[in-house]
């Protein structure tokens, strides 16, 4: 009897956790990042395969994606702030998954009928398919950016409430989920493409996104129902205040002026408002872009954010260009996915170390430790790279192309393995600092 009584509270705690909004956010985020990781890994291989082992399409895709986020990032953030949370999350989810599904179906058609498409209209139809694939994939990436901002920077903060420790733990758990999916998702789709075909890989990714979209849509609604605070936003409060001011102006007009004069003043103000709104609509994206950077510059964490952005410039990771280059040099999808999984394991070590070091040393000292720990491996890697270049010039000038690739990726993996732990430490520190500032302001 005593054993049963002691086990019952533990089972109840597990049941409550699995039904809580926190667990539902974790589950939805895992499904979302799994699809993102599979697509981000596979799209580089698909584009290289389509264009005859050339990096042209992959480079164009990387440039379009990076440029779109740079130009439209502030506009996306402004759209996220101005609209209700559930509407933003559901719209981003549907657009992202629908774009990936459509892109996967289009790639399947291109792989299946590539020879026929090459002949039709002197190859222009195939070129149009390339442009359409990159455009749709870019839309999916922008929707993924909006989804990431909504969940990681907004919903997690609201669900955690005023508990800073809970907020830090949730951020760390989200990062662990990111790294686990970064290990497993590329491995799965890499094996499918290596032992099956690219056609099967496209079909699998499209099918996964259909399943994931339906389940994530349900999970978002459940989290929204379990967390009433998600229904209230600062932007909605400001809109209510503006409406009250407008009603007060109407009341003053009714008390001080005659009905004819009051209606005339209201019509004139409405006409001015209409004219200004038409002008504002034309220049709204430009103003939003400028105001976003100005607001970011005025934040107290501006220099921390800039330092982190410069840190990303020194990290040689497995992005679409690197993955595509390795594929052109003879590494198949199976080997590439295993390398990505091995490098992501080091990222989990960094995320786990962040929670432990933060509890022992605090947030600021953890940042100092991460910065100092990063400098040593970076210098060692630069020295190793320099020695490898000298050795390659002397010994491997006449070596086969594939041997160069394996040497190159040995040092890439060494660099990524050393850098990933400290990079994630600093990323976690910055995300926790932003979230803490947001809690203090609210």
Automatic annotation (TrEMBL):
PANTHER family named in the record: SOLUTE CARRIER FAMILY 40 MEMBER, SOLUTE CARRIER FAMILY 40 MEMBER 1
InterPro entries listed in its UniProt record: Ferroportin-1 (IPR009716), MFS_trans_sf (IPR036259)
UniProt-listed Gene3D superfamilies: MFS general substrate transporter like domains (1.20.1250.20)
GO molecular function annotation: iron ion transmembrane transporter activity; metal ion binding; peptide hormone binding
Name of this protein: Solute carrier family 40 member
Transmembrane annotation, as ranges: 59-80, 92-113, 119-143, 294-315, 335-357, 378-397, 403-418
Major site of localization recorded for this protein: membrane
CDD domains registered for this protein in UniProt: MFS_SLC40A1_like (cd17480)
Alphabetical keyword list: Cell membrane, Ion transport, Iron, Membrane, Metal-binding, Transmembrane, Transmembrane helix, Transport
Known function: May be involved in iron transport and iron homeostasis.
Family (UniProt): Belongs to the ferroportin (FP) (TC 2.A.100) family. SLC40A subfamily.
Coiled coil: none
GO CC terms in record: basolateral plasma membrane
Localization, UniProt: Basolateral cell membrane; Membrane
Membrane association type: Multi-pass membrane protein
């Amino acid at each position: 009897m005593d054993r049963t009584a002691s086990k019952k509270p533990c089972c109840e705690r597990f049941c409550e956790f699995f039904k809580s909004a926190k667990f539902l956010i974790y589950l939805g985020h895992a499904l979302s990042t799994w699809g993102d990781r599979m697509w981000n890994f596979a799209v580089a291989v698909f584009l290289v395969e389509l264009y005859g082992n050339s990096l042209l399409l992959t480079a164009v895709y990387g440039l379009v994606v990076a440029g779109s986020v740079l130009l439209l990032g502030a506009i996306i953030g402004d759209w996220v702030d101005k609209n209700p949370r559930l509407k933003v999350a559901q719209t981003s989810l549907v657009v992202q998954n629908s774009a990936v599904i459509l892109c996967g179906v289009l790639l399947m058609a291109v792989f299946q009928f590539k020879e026929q498409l090459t002949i039709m209209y002197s190859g222009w139809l195939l070129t149009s398919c390339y442009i359409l694939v990159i455009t749709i994939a870019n839309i999916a990436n922008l929707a993924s950016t909006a989804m990431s901002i909504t969940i990681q920077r907004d919903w997690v903060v609201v669900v955690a409430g005023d508990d800073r420790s809970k907020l830090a733990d949730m951020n760390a758990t989200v990062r662990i989920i990111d790294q686990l999916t970064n290990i497993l998702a590329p491995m799965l789709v890499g094996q499918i493409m290596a032992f099956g075909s690219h056609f099967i890989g496209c079909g699998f990714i499209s099918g996964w996104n259909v399943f994931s979209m339906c389940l994530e849509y349900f999970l978002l609604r459940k989290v929204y129902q379990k967390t009433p605070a998600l229904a209230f936003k600062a932007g909605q409060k400001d809109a209510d205040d503006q409406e009250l001011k407008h009603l007060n102006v109407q009341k003053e007009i009714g008390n001080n002026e005659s009905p004819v004069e009051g209606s005339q003043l209201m019509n004139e103000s409405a006409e001015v408002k209409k004219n200004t709104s038409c002008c504002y609509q034309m220049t709204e994206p430009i103003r939003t872009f400028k105001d976003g950077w100005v607001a970011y510059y005025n934040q107290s964490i501006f220099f921390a954010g800039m330092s982190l952005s410069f840190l990303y410039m020194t990290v040689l990771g497995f992005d679409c260009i690197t993955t595509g280059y390795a594929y052109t040099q003879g590494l198949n999808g199976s080997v590439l996915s295993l390398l990505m999984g091995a490098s992501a394991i080091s990222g989990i070590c960094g995320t786990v170390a962040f929670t432990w070091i933060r509890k022992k040393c605090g947030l600021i000292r953890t940042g100092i430790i991460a910065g100092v720990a990063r400098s040593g491996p970076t210098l060692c890697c630069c020295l190793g790279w320099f020695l490898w270049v000298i050795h390659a010039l002397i010994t491997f000038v006449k070596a086969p192309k594939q041997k160069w690739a394996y040497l190159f990726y040995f040092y890439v993996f060494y660099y990524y393995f050393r850098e990933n732990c400290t990079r994630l430490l600093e990323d976690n520190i910055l995300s926790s600092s932003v979230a803490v500032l947001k809690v203090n302001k609210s």
